[in-house]
Amino acid sequence: MSPPSVHTNPRSANGITASIGESSSFESTMTSIWMASYPSIDDSRVLLGDITSDVVVVGAGITGLLTAWRLCNAGYRVVVLEAGLAGQKNTGASTGNLYGSTSEMATLLAKWGEDVLREVTASRMHAIAGVDALVTEYGIDCGFVRTPLQWSIESNAPAERQRYARELAAYRVAGLSPHPSPGQLPFPLTDSFSVEGQAQLDPYRLCRALLGLLSRHAALFEQTQVIDIDAAASCVRTATGKVHANHIVLATHSPAGFNLLQAEMEVYREYGIAVPVQTPLPIGIHWVTDSGRSLRSVPEQQAPLLVVVGEKHRTGEWSPTQDPAGRLLKYAQERFVVNGPVAASWSAQQFKPADGLPYIGSSAHENVWVATGFQADGLTWGALAAELIVQGIEGRQPDDLAHLLSPLRITPLKSAGGWARTNATVIKHLLGDRLKAEVDDGSEIAPGSGRVVGKGEGRCALYRDETGMLHAMSPVCPHLKCIVQWNGDANSWDCPCHGSRFGPTGELLEGPALNGLARKQTPS
Ligand code: FES
Questions:
Q1: Between 20 and 30 A from 479 (CA), which of 121, 159, 184, 376?
Q2: How many Å lie between the centroid of ligand 1 and the Cα of residue 423?
């Protein structure tokens, strides 16, 4: 295959294009700083009609795009279908950090042992090297830099000191050569170690560049929602067409449609903000773990910008008192000189696997490939998933890692706690939410917010738009019939059972559901 040219769009000359209020009560744009800093583009092509291909990749985040790119390089005909625009879901809302470790190294060591920890770490470092090589070879302008990861605590609490010691030991076992380091944060730390050779980039620019690379070699369709996956017929269907392919890759975070893996993952929503600060934070991955914060800078802006990520809750369990963005802003104000309004705030989904490792490989159907359970470590797992899935499609003998990460693995002892929590959550919402009765008529719903009202068959998900008009939908999630809940920070209806999300007026934002919420007549 001849080397493709790189097609990237220039950054906005003005830097940040989204700007929101000054305090914790700002109006959230829910657009990540990476997307807010990038020119708005929609040159999407929608699938019309039926086509045949070797592989259809559903989802155009980092996993789908890198899988498609590697498949094209291996000579396969590839179709990519993306429900929205490439990179605009969880990849574009990620922190842009790539690291060989995972966010819970000591837990991984305790569950899986030293050999697995070393193998997982080496494979993740290999995946980062693959992204480095791709970015270098094609001159992709996505701010990729090699940088240290700094793991720190602020507290002197014995439990935190013990956790620090356990993580440091696990990093040593993993072969990452952590070294104690004072770090470069402008506030006191109790303990801190650094690991060299990790990486950082702008995840949205990477996706747009990958889309450009792929444009000459694959058939790319955005704004094209898959509404049915027929594994037996090896076909996926959209509202306006069909793709027949020998292999179906579900690079959709949680596998689209029904999949037993959904019963093995806890789902969380995590929030991030970007704020201007007086002094730029040095480039690097900065984890302050006892306060649950990940910090980084945003290069190439007119003013230094600090990204603060943390504050999460189970998806579908948002509460108006949580104010995640406000808490992140307060954290920043207490440690940095914040000298302007919040530039962007956003959130992303995390799927936490029951046994601590993601599920990557062919699922119950040999021709259907999935990649999920990345927790907070999605960019690196996504890059690794692309390598493993392409190897699998090529029929190369599965290696130890492919067995380890197989979606078909059965790990009852390692998974017991996760299964119990996931199933307790599903039962609580599947049964308990049906018994709740909000008997008001929705007249108290403020513009720009929503609430589930009524009971039984009359239950409605009501959203009042900014003009005051009420929109009514069924609150029953079309995936497996749990009751959705309003999320006022993400401006979405979120399903507490397996994480499907819907826009204010019911349109599908992310699966596993394949359809939006059914419209209902607005109560008079
Ligand atoms: Fe499974 Fe809603 S996502 S029931």
A1: 376
A2: 12
Q: Which of 480, 492, 502 to mutate to test the pocket of ligand 1 (most atoms within 8 A of CB)?
A: 480
The predicted-structure confidence for 476-519, as pLDDT tens digits, reads as follows 999 988 999 999 999 999 999 999 999 999 999 998 999 999 99
Ligand 1 contacts CB of residue 500 (under 6 A): yes
Residue 25 tokens read as 């009560």
CA 441–ligand 1 middle distance (angstroms): 25
Cα 403 to the center of its chain, rounded Å: 24
pTM here is 0.89
Strand spans (E) along 231-332? 235-238, 241-250, 265-276, 285-288, 293-298, 305-314
Instruction: Give the number of other CB atoms < 10 A from CB of residue 25.
Output: 9
Does residue 501 have its Cβ closer than 6 Å to ligand 1? no
SS3 353: strand
Give the residue, out of 422, 423, 477, 484, with the most ligand 1 atoms within 8 A of its beta carbon, to mutate for a pocket test: 477
Number of neighbours of residue 139 by Cβ within 10 angstroms? 10
Alpha-carbon torsion 272, 276, 278, 284, what sign? positive
The amino acid at residue 168 is L
Query: Ligand 1 centre and the CA of 117: distance in Å?
Result: 32
**Can you spell out the DSSP letters for 399-432?**
-HHHHHH-TT---HHHHHHHHHHHHHHHHIIIII
Q: Which residues contact 348 (CB under 8 A, 6 or more apart)?
A: 32, 90, 93, 94, 269, 270, 272
* Angle value at C-alpha 354, between 349 and 355, nearest 5 degrees: 125
